[in-house]
Design goal:
alpha/beta, D-Maltodextrin-Binding Protein, domain 2, 2 domains, seven-stranded mixed β-sheet, 15 helices, 14 strands, 35% helix, 16% strand, globular
Length: 390
């Protein structure tokens, strides 16, 4: 398939053609943003939300606003949903914690930020027993107690979509066996052929795991220094930094880069759905410690929603078989559902798009993404090394 065909498919979907260019000068991440946001206290919370009758405000990633999901819920519940699409999860969380929680009823975002809604006191904790019928439909890996969505023994949300982070490769330009370890990203033969996603913590976490360090525990200075060395070496061998998904996809398609660091199925699945089955997301298998990462999106009820019963109904709706099927297959990104009933709906072609036959390998070689205690320190290191590389 040609790039022209890819752009034709984007045009039909209402998107601009993909044009690639290096993007090394992204805005700096504000130091301490996440830590500051987490200091939001109950005293900052206002009274119940004022809302027009028959409306709901929903902050979410693209995909949750799919008409196949939205229309049935609006019709059944006689409600109109207003969407605020998330650009990045830390920014969405910061908006909620800074007072925006007063304006929203439901949020669907990356699981660490749903988990952080607990200590920030900006979510309604849910009773797993009340949602037992939902959990009963989930794969065992997502059933309670599900630690990535727990705070102080209480549940902050429901898992709704998942995927994995690892080397993204074009099998027409890269040998998959070469990417069973991250070593290839540092190999001199691949110099200037490594693409890095400028997506917050996502390129940092797999590099920490590659260094033999668990970034999901409290880190000492020696461990932070080691991660800095790995990031410095990665930047030295890389071609470009990407913040735009379509530009990174084009670079992968045309062979400008051998791999993308800091993403996985979130980037490759849209291409696979467009017919590029030579684009795959793999996880490292060759080293002693697990280096793949399983990411998860979750849905939570924001503190004091206008109508908590309606918010619970939305939480149930987005996890049901039909809505979850639509959520897992859209043009932007296609990723599996925690709801095991959805798997029976997939055609063989859709199974291939989702790389479902590879899932056992993913779980065997990956860790679950969750709150990283030193995320602020790691983001500062990232920005400092990026500035030095430029």
């Amino acid at each position: 398939m040609t790039m022209d065909k890819f752009n034709q498919s984007r045009k039909r979907a209402g998107r601009s053609p993909a044009v690639w260019a290096p993007d090394p000068n992204r805005r700096a991440v504000l130091k301490g943003m996440a830590a500051t946001a987490m200091t939001a206290t109950a005293g900052a919370l206002g009274p119940g939300k004022a809302r027009a009758a028959g409306s709901m405000n929903y902050m979410c990633w693209e995909g949750y606003n799919d008409p196949r999901i939205v229309d049935p819920f609006e019709e059944t519940n006689d409600v109109s949903i207003n969407f605020d699409l998330i650009v990045d999860s830390p920014g969405g969380f910061a908006k909620l914690a800074a007072g925006g929680h007063r304006d929203f009823d439901v949020v669907s975002t990356d699981s660490p930020w749903v988990q952080r809604m607990g200590p920030a006191n900006i979510c309604e904790f849910i009773d797993p027993a009340e949602f037992q019928d939902v959990y009963d439909k989930f794969y065992p890996q997502f059933q309670p107690p599900f630690e990535p969505l727990q705070f102080d023994g209480k549940t902050t949300g429901l898992p709704t979509r998942w995927g994995w982070v690892g080397p993204c490769i074009n099998t027409e330009t890269s040998d998959p066996d070469e990417w069973k370890t991250w070593d290839a990203a540092f190999d001199s033969k691949n110099k200037d052929k490594i693409g890095i996603m400028d997506w917050g913590d996502w390129p940092i976490m797999p590099m920490a795991l590659y260094a033999g360090i668990d970034p999901y525990k409290e880190l000492d200075q020696a461990e932070l220094d080691e991660i800095r060395k790995v990031l410095r070496a990665l930047f030295a061998n890389s071609r470009a930094l990407f913040s735009d998904l379509s530009l990174s996809q084009k670079a992968l398609l045309d062979g400008s880069v051998k791999t993308l660091v800091g993403t996985g199925t979130y980037s490759t699945s849209g291409l696979r759905k467009a017919g590029y089955e030579n684009i795959v997301a793999v996880v490292p298998e060759g080293n002693e410690n697990k280096q793949g990462i399983i990411w998860l999106e979750a849905t939570a009820i924001v503190k004091t929603p206008a109508d908590i019963d309606l918010a619970k109904a939305m939480m149930r709706h987005v996890t049901n078989k039909e809505a979850a099927y639509a959520l897992t297959l859209n043009d932007f990104t296609s990723n599996p559902s925690p709801n095991r009933a959805v798997e029976a709906l997939y055609t063989e072609e859709e199974r291939s798009v989702l790389q479902l036959d590879y899932v056992d390998t993913v779980w065997e070689n990956s860790v679950l993404h969750k709150v990283a205690p030193n995320i602020d320190d790691l983001l500062v290191i990232w920005q400092e090394e990026l500035a030095n590389a430029n």
